[in-house]
Amino acid sequence: MSSVLDPKVVLVTGASSGIGRATALALSKAGAIVAVGGRRTDRLEALAQEAPGEILVLDMDVSDPESVREAVDRTVERFGTLDIVVNNAGIMLTGPVLDADPAEWTRMVETNLLGSMYTVHAALPHLLRSRGAVVQISSTSGRISSAGAAVYSATKFGVNAFAEALRQEVTEQGVRVVLVEPGFVSTELADHITDPTSRAAVKTMAESMRTLQPEDIAAAVVYAVTQPDHVAVNEILVRPTDQSR
Ligand SMILES: NC(=O)c1ccc[n+]([C@@H]2O[C@H](COP(=O)([O-])OP(=O)(O)OC[C@H]3O[C@@H](n4cnc5c(N)ncnc54)[C@H](OP(=O)(O)O)[C@@H]3O)[C@@H](O)[C@H]2O)c1
Predict the structure, then answer these.
(1) CATH number, domain at 131?
(2) Which of 11, 33, 131, 222 is the most exposed place for a label (fewest CB within 10 A)?
(3) Domain Ketoreductase spans what residues (predicted)?
(4) Which ligand 1 atom minimizes the distance to the CA of 112?
């Protein structure tokens, strides 16, 4: 496995923590050159120290199309190509619809849904040239909607819809689209929930099961992108064994 992705160039968004960080490290260990995007660049610099391969740190806010375009351009200017994009950046600000602050809905739509669309739009010309791949980190919430997660789920259902249409548009040109749908993973995602009841409910849920670790999802991404060119792993759903829905 060690040089399977050598010399592929991969951009991972939201690589400063959780799934994105673990995925960037796993791809680096598999031989890829990895451009890592996020707003907390101090954390990205620390990741660059830890990774075995070459890392490009990008100050990148996926909710800002200009920032996204700059990040993609910098990656291609530096390495001459872009082979794989992992659209991972996301936020989960759950709570009941009635009590919600619509500004949080805007942030979720701009980050989870529009952010991944902006990244695909900026990267696609390069991916068509390299016959590359797009990995969209969605969620089980993109398949099953549940009370308290209406808008988070709506963004992930949107990610799934976008991925399937994109797949149909580009598959015959050799670009593979991979949807990865994690269940409950131990990360800082829920720490940012502002509604105390919802935050406590997620914590209780986490304590009730053996959750996934970010490395479990990173392994799924590496599996998908290391298949031979004629094999398109289009969808991977990974739940903790203890998670029923
Ligand atoms: N944890 C789970 O149980 C779970 C389950 C299913 C799906 N997911 C999905 O997995 C993805 C990663 O989440 P995680 O669990 O690893 O959470 P996390 O540890 O909170 O990581 C989220 C990442 O997204 C980045 N991010 C947030 N807003 C951004 C923005 N505007 N621009 C650029 N980067 C931004 C953060 O970086 P900065 O703050 O430094 O910008 C951070 O690196 C998300 O799409 C999430 O919906 C998670």
Answers:
(1) 3.40.50.720
(2) 131
(3) 8-188
(4) 45
